[in-house]
Amino acid sequence: MSDDKTVGIVLVSHSAEVAASVAELAKGLAGGGTSVPVAPAGGTEGGGLGTSAELIAAAAASVDRGAGVAVLTDLGSAVLTVKALIAEGDELPANTRLVDAPFVEGAVAAVVTAAAGADLAAVEAAAAEAYTYRKA
Amino acid sequence: MLDAEFFRRWMTATAASVDREAERLTALDSPIGDADHGSNLQRGFKSVIAALEKEAPQTPGAVLTLSGRQLISTVGGASGPLYGTLLRRTGKALGDAAEVDEGQLAEALRAGVDAVMALGGAAPGDKTMIDALVPAVDALDDGFPAARSAAEQGALATTPLQARKGRASYLGERSVGHQDPGATSSALLIAALAEAAGE
Fold first, then answer.
1. pLDDT tens track for B132-167
2. What's the pLDDT score for residue A91?
3. DSSP element (H, E) containing A51
4. Distance (Å, rounded) from C-alpha B176 to C-alpha B159?
């Protein structure tokens, strides 16, 4: 667990504001000074609601520290675009994974776990486990 | 035999058809979707045509993989990665051959459709583009016009179905009675194939 090998986190939402706010929330709840690289990729390049492959690729490249990149998405085209980019092979950094997790809770779990120096598999597991927390 | 020029004609005919039908696609997408299918595909295929002109790919496979890549990057909705995957996988299956025959195209398209089903998790009957594409690929052995008819029938047959994938699935029974926009645009794609073949 060294600082230069932290797992990067990308948050993909149909909305730029949602992606940016969830990134801020997750970093805040992980302890404001966390050095985990977190990048939002929200909305389309034109600022509308939707998904941008370019913004996702840029965000993933920006958080890649060599320890892998965990990508969390909201729904629909966000999920499908990330899957298609991963299937493409050379669009995202090596060792980029789409994490099957609830967006907000998963993002918090992923950032907290990555901040503790965990590897990609542990970050993925922590985010996915957020599904098991029932609210009612 | 089908060469790169044939596949360029296919993409050009699809772009023209999407342009003509954009308003109808968006109208179909209004009651059960988010009313952007026509404009999204219009943007995507416009960028496909621009990329084909700029990069001038020389093989059938290269034309389709480049086209698929453009759709994934530029559409901005779920149809981008879905159509992008369809064309890209079909293109990859065609390999580096300078010309392919109709049998090879049918086989490659089947690989593309399988990849779309794997990506989106949809099966026939879920009221999606798959409901036009699967019958079209099945009919392709009988020629392009047969595939076009099968795709059009498949798209029409989505009307009484209840959506089980995508945003329309949130509507449950209220999705019944509307023709699926994705199946409709898939029928345009297959009709453009027949048009490129001059049939």
1. 999 999 999 999 999 999 999 999 999 999 999 888
2. 87
3. none
4. 6
Interface contact A83-B119, CB threshold 8 A: yes
A54 to chain B: closest CA residue: B73
Amino acid (1-letter code) at residue B12: T
Instruction: Report B:155-174 residues touching A (Cβ under 8 A).
Output: 166-167
d(CA B58, CA B66): 11
Q: Can you list the alpha helix ranges (DSSP code H) found in B95-143?
A: 102-120, 130-139
Q: What is the DSSP letter of A14?
A: S
What pLDDT, on a 0 to 100 scale, did the predictor assign at position B189?
98
From B72, B77, B84, residue closest to A50, measured CB to CB: B77
> Which chain B residue is nearest to residue A79, measuring alpha carbons?
B78
Percent of chain A exceeding pLDDT 90 equals 81
CATH number at residue B167: 1.25.40.340
To the nearest whole number, what is the mean pLDDT of chain A?
Answer: 93
- Per-residue pLDDT tens digits for B89-114: 999 999 999 999 999 999 999 999 99
Q: Looking at the 3D structure of chain B, how many domains does it have?
A: 1
Query: How sure is the predictor about A1, in pLDDT bands with cuts at 50, 70 and 90?
Result: very low
Q: What is the mean pLDDT of residues A36-54?
A: 93
User: Whole-angstrom Cα distance, residue B98 to residue B1?
Assistant: 10
B190 touches chain A (CB under 8 A): no
Q: What was the pLDDT predicted at A33? A: 72
User: Which among B181, B122, B192, B124 has a CA at the least distance from the CA of B156?
Assistant: B181
Confidence at residue A89, expressed as pLDDT on a 0 to 100 scale? 79
DSSP string, B36-105: -HHHHHHHHHHHHHHHHHHH---SHHHHHHHHHHHHHHH--STHHHHHHHHHHHHHHHHTT-SEE-HHHH
- Domains of chain A by start residue, with CATH: 3-132 (3.40.50.510)
- The residues of A assigned a catalytic role are 14
Q: Which pairing describes strands B99-100 and B2-3: parallel, antiparallel, or unpaired?
A: antiparallel
Which range of residues forms the domain containing residue B140? 2-196
Alpha helices of chain A — where are they, by DSSP H? Answer: 16-29, 53-63, 77-88, 103-115, 120-129
